[in-house]
Design a protein that fits this description.
This protein is of the alpha+beta class. The chain contains 2 helices and 7 strands.
Length: 143
């Protein structure tokens, strides 16, 4: 297991951003994960996590899974499925991984689990090379 470096001003994990959600990511065997307790700063419905905050966290986790594989990409499609509300003040875990690699895109999956292990939110993403945004290095997708 290794801790991933911070992203500066990132909205989800940037130590240099005073409004960052504040997650710390870890990687092991191609999977990205974090454990976190959301608070009122991420509230949507009273006492529960805002859907946009969970979407941002899953997007960042899936993007990190692709970036740690050495690919410089951006999301072009995200699908977020809300299965149950996420209470504030409860430790949750976030996991993401690459599901498939194709010549011109990478497919990812993610999930946010509650303390009891039940799945609260799932995500799927499609990521494509974006050298004009993130640099031309390492944009090959073939194994």
């Amino acid at each position: 297991m290794r801790k991933l470096p911070g992203h500066g001003a990132c909205f989800v994990c940037g130590a240099e951003n005073p409004r960052s959600i504040g997650l710390t990511w870890f990687e092991t065997e191609g999977e990205i994960f974090a454990a976190f307790t959301f608070d009122e700063g991420q509230q949507g419905p009273p006492g529960h996590l805002h859907g946009g905050a969970s979407a941002a966290v899953l997007d960042e986790a899936m993007g990190a899974a692709v970036w740690t594989a050495g690919l410089r990409v951006v999301a072009v499609n995200l699908e977020i499925n809300y299965k149950q509300p996420v209470p504030l003040g409860q430790r949750v875990t976030i996991h993401a991984r690459i599901q498939e690699r194709h010549e011109r895109k990478v497919l990812t999956t993610s999930e946010l689990r509650l303390a009891d292990g039940s799945v609260a939110v799932t995500g799927r993403g499609i990521y494509v090379p974006a050298p004009h945004l993130v640099g031309a290095e390492k944009v090959r997708f073939e194994h």
